[in-house]
Write a structure and sequence with these properties.
Layout: E1 2-10, E2 13-20, E3 30-36, E4 42-50, H1 52-73, H2 79-100, E5 108-116, E6 122-127, E7 131-136, E8 139-142, H3 149-155, H4 161-165, E9 186-190, E10 197-201, H5 203-206, H6 211-220, H7 223-236, E11 243-249, H8 269-314
Antiparallel strand pairs: 1-2, 2-11, 3-4, 4-5, 5-6, 6-9, 7-8, 7-10, 10-11
Helix pairs in contact: 1-2, 6-7
């Protein structure tokens, strides 16, 4: 089941989000939300739950709800302190729920959040392997580093990026929200410029769609179109996990041309091959569809001809002379 949502907080600022169960999982354990404060601050949150159908959904939903509540209450401190406090509060709440309800034992969730304050300053916080990216002038730059076993191996130079992408333990995370009584949150300030586009996602997208492909789609389409296209592409790749995507587009001055609209997307050879493979697959499917339609048309013509020919034979009567046996469609008389 697909659950699309989109909101526009003001004419120039575009925000879109979509979450989808994928093609393999029985339930959607992802959660996401976009919150807005009275002063114009905006908060995007994506959480990817774990711990069984009920546990995962409870953990991710509780995390998003708690982070949104702390954000609305605000209080003192910097944007980074606010995000850290919101996520640690969510951690305590999820951990307590798991202790009080045995069927929720061991549940947890990843979290990634982007806060754009009233002054236009950006802050990102995360735990786990859900990601935040900034798209700017053709480049999709990761703003988070996965808290995972394989990402740690890659950071230390033990394995290459290509090996990391196919490592059998790539889904093993080292940190999550709610599994323990305390959690370490990574928080960082983010530069924000007119025309920037921010992408938050669960690993249901990043695990099957290359960064190059995400960049090409984010550049070419509006946020609402892009979240749909990215979810559809992840499902084309098998949809092995729940898929959640949020995109925030920073407005440009009305007198300026959007610098991102015409920036050349810097796509690696791997990305080019992936996009070209997708194009060829769609072309093959179109050709197969045309051939199937042609075959069905020919079968229909043959069936109609047999019916008509059978009617003519029935009108001969029992004493009518017998023609030569038919083989295929009769030839025309010379």
């Amino acid at each position: 089941m697909t659950e699309p949502t989109e909101g526009v907080t003001e004419p120039a600022l575009r925000v879109a989000a979509r979450t989808d169960v994928g093609l393999v999982r029985a339930a959607n354990e992802d959660a996401c939300e976009v919150f807005e404060a009275a002063d114009g601050s905006r908060l995007l949150v994506v959480a990817d739950g774990m711990g069984g159908h009920r546990g995962g959904a409870t953990a991710s939903g509780t995390a998003v709800e708690t982070i949104g509540r702390v954000f609305s209450e605000r209080g003192s401190g910097s944007p980074g302190e606010l995000l850290s406090r919101a996520i640690t509060t969510a951690n305590a709440r999820i951990f307590e729920l798991a202790r009080s309800e045995p069927e929720l034992s061991g549940m947890g969730t990843t979290v990634v959040a982007l806060l754009l304050d009233a002054r236009g300053r950006g802050t990102v916080a995360h735990v786990g392997d859900s990601r935040a990216y900034r798209y700017r002038r053709g480049r999709l730059e990761p703003l988070t580093i996965d808290h995972s076993y394989v990402a740690d191996l890659h950071r230390r130079g033990v394995i290459s990026a290509e090996e990391a992408a196919h490592h059998p333990r790539r889904n093993e995370i080292l940190r999550s929200v709610g599994v323990g009584p305390e959690v370490e949150v990574d928080v960082a300030g983010v530069e924000v410029a007119p025309g920037d586009r921010f992408v938050l996602c669960s690993d249901g997208l990043s695990g099957v769609v290359d960064d190059d492909e995400i960049a090409a789609i984010v550049q070419a389409e509006s946020p609402a179109q892009a979240v749909d296209s990215l979810v559809e592409l992840a499902n084309e790749r098998g949809g092995p996990d729940n898929i959640t995507v949020q995109i925030l587009a920073i407005p440009v001055d009305a007198t300026q041309v959007d610098p991102e609209a015409t920036a050349p997307v810097e796509i690696s050879e791997v990305g080019i091959q992936a996009i070209e493979t997708r194009r060829r697959t769609r072309a093959r499917l179109r050709r197969a569809g045309l051939l199937a339609a042609l075959a069905l048309g020919l079968i229909g013509v043959f069936v109609v001809w047999r019916i008509l020919a059978g009617g003519q034979d029935a009108g001969r009567g029992p004493d009518a002379p017998v023609d030569e046996p038919r083989r295929g469609i009769p030839r025309e008389a010379p």
